[in-house]
Amino acid sequence: MRNILIIIAAVLALTACSKNKFTTSPQISFKSVSPNITASNNPNFNASPILTIRVTDAEGDIGFKPGSDTSRVYIKNLLRNTLDSAFLPDIQTAGTKKFEADIVINLFDYIKCKLGGSATARTDTAYYELYVTDFAKNKSNIIRTETPVLITGCKN
Question: What pTM was computed for the model?
Fold first, then answer.
């Protein structure tokens, strides 16, 4: 009986200490970049890298809301040290308490490569840092892409 009580106490302690993925500030995690290579100088290769992140938020107060200050995703190109932002999609119909979803971002506008095509063109390796904000301006954790984006055809 004593062993059973110790096991129950240990399980309760672990459960109480586990990290809650639904917090007031949004939480994000990296899922994927696909394809992780793009060619700027080949018209037959126009696949734009697509970044997928997972977003959770306790209040569900994220997304695009017309006519008001909306939440955003911030994307920093670490290769070029440039920071851009974009509106999150309109999720008001899905926005509920304990919101959880994947967000897909087309990285085409965030590549920031001087396009080349000459024999001296090189391949750049870009990583990105991201965070999101909600309607209350709570900032999420900052993540870095685990997979680089290879950009061929960049010039010096």
Answer: 0.75
